């Protein structure tokens, strides 16, 4: 009976009666326009637990009167009564904003036109009010990229704000008549200039055991890889010349890193841009790079055990930090925080100024670390 009464007053809403919930889908007239809506009413005809979904244009109207609508939902006893109040409140809101509705409509129409120009296939997601648009495209190597575009009020006069997972900024020359096409063209042009960089980094990620970052994205140009037990190297690859010798910083016990630093200084001119980064490192440093496939086995290509984890917590990453402190005697690596807490628990440890001294938890030889701030 309640459903029939609602259908008479709101003929554009079609009901679906289920065992768990009653739903309505169709159009609701607000002022001079019909807007698409979807209602889920678990306790029909009562408004308790009701959810109302609308199209983007009606959602923008609701934003301005959300507090009043929430109060009406509490006061109304039935869905039909609430919809009646909903129409009145939203219609009043549109009447009060008639002076700005036309510019908003024009902006929305222009934005849709610009999306049509670049193609809906390039759009992966749109917010309900079209204030946020996510674009996607593939580069020459079929890598998928995503671009976040924040539409400003006053589009296209106001230039959108863009966010991309890139190591460099996108150079956009904004043109109000072209709109999103400007952004799309500049973005794809920038992607094309970074192909050699990503080819080199992808090859490095596939070949070497990368310690950090744990999940590299397209904006990361640095990698920390393992060379041998407890010796690693931080590489920062040049964006402009990715096949050239990267910035290198060796990490580990000084008696192990010192000879490698010497080889790097003496042999840097043997770096060949035609070779991969891994092959060049092995030739210049005279050591094997631990390969990515050894992550699960725990052995390098020669069958030797390797370990990069902290010898206290047995983890690689601790709150974003790697085990950067190494014992000069046994070459075991530690997180500074882990070693500090260990030394604090040992009775014969002593602290002087901002350093703490004690026995290495692995070999019991003297070791020290700075007191974490």
Automatic annotation (TrEMBL):
* Alphabetized Gene3D superfamilies for the sequence: RWD domain-like, Ubiquitin Conjugating Enzyme, Zinc/RING finger domain, C3HC4 (zinc finger)
State one molecular function term (GO).
ubiquitin protein ligase activity
Task: Name the InterPro entries for this protein.
Answer: Fancl, FANCL_C, FANCL_d2, FANCL_d3, FANCL_d3_sf, FancL_WD-rpt_cont_dom, UBQ-conjugating_enzyme/RWD, Znf_RING
What keywords were assigned to this record?
Metal-binding, Zinc, Zinc-finger
A GO biological process held by the record? protein monoubiquitination
| Domain RING-type as annotated: residue spans | 310-364
GO CC annotation: Fanconi anaemia nuclear complex
Q: Pfam family of this protein, just one?
A: FANCL_d2
**Can you name this protein?**
Putative E3 ubiquitin-protein ligase FANCL isoform X1
Q: Which organism is it from?
A: Penaeus vannamei
